[in-house]
Design brief:
137 residues, alpha/beta, Rossmann fold, 4-stranded mixed sheet, 6 helices, 4 strands, globular
């Protein structure tokens, strides 16, 4: 609660989980915390959701798949999407470069862009509603 008090008004929370059951438990606790703290929940993202084999290009569910989406459905919050494991994300991040900017044609970058678009849309709607309430107030 101290963190929320320190931050003040926030546009919303994006809860990131991985498909493993122990991570899903933590994400559920985060959803409950946000609801109890009256923090809007933008949605849940499933990170490390599969891997494309660099040799045969088939999909491998390293840590399973779908747990984030199932949790979102169970808890009544939006599911924003899945981000696959991608070694290039590590390389770009370690170089201090935004992955999705430099690899915009990759499936992983497309996943980042789809999620970012949803977050932006949520924040714009939230900002519009807040301005309307403040004008009436």
């Amino acid at each position: 609660m101290t963190t929320i008090d320190l931050l003040g008004r926030v546009s919303g929370a994006v809860i990131v989980t991985t498909p493993q059951e122990v991570a899903l438990l933590d994400s559920r606790k985060s959803v409950t915390f946000c609801k109890d703290s009256e923090v809007p929940i933008i949605g849940i993202v499933e990170n490390m959701s599969g891997l494309e084999c660099p040799h045969c290009h088939s999909h491998i569910d390293v840590f399973r798949k779908g747990g984030g989406e199932a949790s979102a459905l169970d808890m009544g919050v939006p599911f924003l999407g899945r981000i696959p494991l991608d070694p290039d994300v590590v390389t770009q991040s370690d170089a201090g470069e935004p992955f999705a900017l430099f690899n915009s044609d990759s499936p992983t970058a497309e996943a980042y862009h789809r999620i970012a678009d949803q977050v932006e849309s949520f924040c714009k709607k939230s900002d519009t509603l807040l301005k309307a309430v403040l004008r009436k107030g």
